[in-house]
Structures are given as C-alpha cells and as structure tokens.
Write a structure and sequence with these properties.
By secondary structure, the protein is of the alpha+beta class. The chain is about 30% helix and about 15% strand.
Amino acid sequence: MTRRRLTEPGSLVLVTDGVVEGPACPLEKGLDEVVQLMRGGYDGDPDRPAGEVIKVADLTGHRDDAAVLVVRYAGIPSAG
C-alpha cells in the first residue's frame, strides 16, 4: 500500500502494466507516452484523458490487462 496526499490541483493517473509495456513497447516508452498526453492538462471530465491514455495500450503489441484510473483534484475550496 502506498499513500499520496494531493496538495496541488491537478490529475493523478494510475495505469496497469498492460497499458505501458509489451513486446512492441518498452516500459519507458509507454510511460513517456502517458506523460506527454497528460502534460497538456485537463480541466474537465476525467473520462477524456483516461480514454486517451488507454489508447497507449495499442502500442504494446499484446493483449494484456489494461486499466486506467484518472483522479482530478481541484484543490481545497476557499472558505470565503
């Protein structure tokens, strides 16, 4: 188990290995693809970036499990 505290507004993206590595795609390349997709940022529905990230699984060259979870954190609302 790992705990992470989100302190800044942004997105947290979790993927299974089937999204980012396979016979046709080394792990580093797959992770780089995900990072590039998420660098632009998304302000709306997390389904949109999740759909884009899951497409990276097509680069891997096999049919392993592939799952993506995107959590968007808007920060703590101001009390005022």
